[in-house]
Amino acid sequence: MKKLLIIAFIFCYSLKGFTQDYNDLGNFKFETLESYKTAEPKVLEAANFLFENPSNIAELKRVNAIRYIINWMQGTPDYTFEISSEATDLAKGNSDLLSLYMAAMTKVVLDNPEKVLTNKEIYDHSEELLISYCAKPENSIKPSRKIKKLMKSQ
After folding, report:
1. Is the pLDDT of residue 15 over 60?
2. Which of 18, 37, 45, 123 sits between 20 and 30 A of 2, alpha carbons compared?
3. What is the rounded average pLDDT for all residues in the chain?
């Protein structure tokens, strides 16, 4: 019986090592240009987390993931991100949608590291991700008028 309890404890403790600790991500400081490159897998993981979970679940984790992504976007020397008027129209003043759009841009470029994408290509792929996320009612996010219009046209 003791062995079973010890094994169960070790198993549960080891699972913690496989989960992302988002509490520290929001305040993470990138120290060197190289740290942006080494952080790319974790940044992609944070973006995937946002698109794989409803907006009303794990809100603190979501906020920290978004802060981490934005900090990375501001300093990475490998990518340049443009938030066009089309993007702001897509979010229409909704900070949750704009944050998801920024995560989508990050996801698009990190999912396609072998390609040099134009700003238009990044926008188009990011728009698709955002529309697909908003189209699922279980994600509990209110789409903007533009997103609703795009969802109807698909």
Report:
1. no
2. 18
3. 85
Which tokens is 62 given?
């979501």
Closest-CA residue to 123 (of 146, 149, 105): 105
DSSP annotation of 143: P
State the pLDDT confidence band at 24, using cuts at 50, 70 and 90.
low
Residue 137 and residue 134: Cα distance in Å, rounded? Answer: 7
Neighbours of 98 (CB within 10 A): 19
Output the CA torsion sign for 81, 83, 84, 86: positive
- Encoded tokens for 117: 């994408």
Minimal CA–CA distance to 89: which of 119, 127, 42, 136? Answer: 127
CA distance 45 to 5: 32
Rounded CA separation 148/24 (Å): 35
Neighbours of 131 (CB within 10 A): 19
Phi (first) and psi of residue 53, to 5 degrees: -130, 145
pLDDT in tens, 75-122: 999 999 999 999 999 999 899 999 999 999 999 999 999 999 999 999
Maximum CA pair distance of the chain?
64
